[in-house]
Amino acid sequence: MTLLPQLILLNCNLFFSYNKDVKTQEKAFNCMSRTDQQNEQKSDGDHKSVTSSFSQRTEENGGCVRMTKKILRDICKQQKLYLTPSLNDILYLHYKGFDRLENLEEYTGLRCLWLECNGLRKIENLEALTELRCLYLQLNLINRIENLESLEKLDSLNISNNYVKTIENLSCLKILNTLQIAHNKLETVEDIQHLQECPSISVLDLSHNNLSDPNIITILEAMPNLRVLNLMGNQVIKKITNYRKTLTVRLKQLTYLDDRPVFPKDRACAEAWAVGGLEAEKAEREKWETRERKKIQDSIDALAKIRQKAEEKKRQKYMEERDAGAKCGNEDATATLEEEQETQEKTEKFRKESFDAHDGVITLVPDRGDNTDFPPESIPARIQEDSHMSSSYKHLNFSKELDGNVHSEE
């Protein structure tokens, strides 16, 4: 009986604590939900603002962007081009989402037009671009080559990564030099037969199509200026025996095939192989290697001669400088000796003159006691004093001699 009230009290405490925790969690959840709602509203507002701004700048048609004059002007302004359309010679319209070519009539001065990676389905409305040299239409939805008759100065056309099944309508481009039509739907010889009517093409990219007939070589042979050819990614490579040698021999102007160049050595070996088989190719390759080794050796010898001449010139210059230095040293030594001799002569002359002057002074003093030749008034005072001093020295010496004699006698 005593345990029942305690159990009831314990259950009540647990109930109240559970309710309290539930209320706390509900408050927290409500706060989080409000925050999420605010964030969602904010993001919706941002998305709506972006969408509205985009709709203000462009006009949508079925999910694609129309190429309007206003959009073209805005693009020119963004890319810091001329706002006057006819003054621009290049225009970047790639990655814009256009589905149709239009409103380009005012851009008559364009020389390069980029339309890569849009949704274009047709080549059209390019009649006003008579100065165009380069046209880039890769990565679109084009399935036919057409409407290029007005582009008489077009030099390069890139129409890769489209859905073109036949090469056509290119004979009107008299100076077309580069045609890139990789990653399309070309399959048979008839699909590329139109290339025979395009003799100006020198760079041709047919890679990653569905070409499988080896007879396409006859079409390529009919292109007199073909120098660069790319057939990678086609089944025809596996069906042409000795693929690289065969194409090198049959395409006389070819300088680059697929992923590497065709060197003169490769062409000579391929032509020898076509005439005499593997033995002729081996002999021709040995001739080229011998010639290359000789050329390398001649270059080494020429370099050695140049170095030897430079060393000889340097040695000769050093000898000349040394001789010049020795000559200057001899001249300096001779000048020094002459100066020393001149100094010595001057010293001897000065000494001699000094001695002569001293002897002259001494001769003025008489040896006898009487001064008959030179009266006292004619002798200077200094000479008289000297004469008196000398006479006193004589008397002193005489007295000393007398004393010495006396002492010696004693």
UniProtKB/TrEMBL annotation:
Any one annotated GO CC term: axoneme
Coiled coil start-end: none
Domain of life from the UniProt record: Eukaryota
Compositional bias ranges of the Basic and acidic residues kind: 37-49, 311-325, 343-359, 398-410
Primary location class: other
Keywords recorded for this protein, A-Z: Cell projection, Cilium, Leucine-rich repeat, Phosphoprotein, Repeat
Region feature (Disordered): 34-57, 311-410
InterPro entries assigned to the protein according to its UniProt record, in alphabetical order: Cilia_flagella_integrity, Leu-rich_rpt, LRR_dom_sf
Localization per Swiss-Prot or TrEMBL: Cell projection, Cilium
GO MF annotations, alphabetized: dynein complex binding
One of the protein's GO biological processes: outer dynein arm assembly
Family indicated by similarity: Belongs to the DNAAF1 family.
Its biological purpose: Cilium-specific protein required for the stability of the ciliary architecture. Plays a role in cytoplasmic preassembly of dynein arms. Involved in regulation of microtubule-based cilia and actin-based brush border microvilli.
Protein name: Dynein axonemal assembly factor 1
The organism of origin for this protein: Anser brachyrhynchus (Pink-footed goose)
